[in-house]
Design goal:
Blueprint (H helix, E strand, L loop, with lengths): L1 H9 L6 E5 L5 E8 L3 E7 L2 E7 L8 E7 L3 E2 L3 H8 L11 E11 L5 E9 L2 E10 L5 E2 L4 E13 L18 E16 L4
Antiparallel strand pairs: 1-4, 1-12, 2-3, 2-12, 3-6, 4-5, 5-7, 7-8, 8-9, 9-11, 10-11, 11-12
Length: about 190
Amino acid sequence: MRFFALLALLAAPAAAQEWRIDPSHSAAQFAVRHMMVSTVRGHFGTIRGTASYDPADAAKSSITVEVDAASIDTRNAKRDAHLKSADFFDVEKHPTLHFQSRSVEPAAGGRLKLTGDLTIRGVSRPVTFDIEGMSAPVRDGRGGERIGATAGARISRKDFGMTWNRAIEAGGVTVGDEVSITIDLQLIRKLPVQ
């Protein structure tokens, strides 16, 4: 129920409030199994977007997120080059990953379900993110207000046309199909001058 408390606190007049993602305090991360023995983690260095909250009706809240595919970093230059290639993200043809929300619903434990369209490699699929940790607004001392949350989802990379793989001797494959996505968001809103 903290989400509804947050919306109540944000109510200046009862109208949608516009927020933007603070890219220096937000992150888009992923994890995938490698050779069925360990998990490889990476992140994208460039994330941006906007959100709209309607204090009168939580269902009208929305968010748009864009991530630069070429900003991928798994701490291994050779692997990153392969991930940027046509075998995976194909960044020359598809430089941006995009998420556009379609609905927001309350969930158990004060969490939210955020459903929308995720586009990777030009392929759009519906994805539902579990949202937790929606913070109360904090003033930042520069005329702004900030809120934060963490969003998580699991996708099949094959659903987005990323089918490259290689069989391994022990039976199995080099890269797992299921990918865990975690997005840590900090949103900022400029407060009206009093």
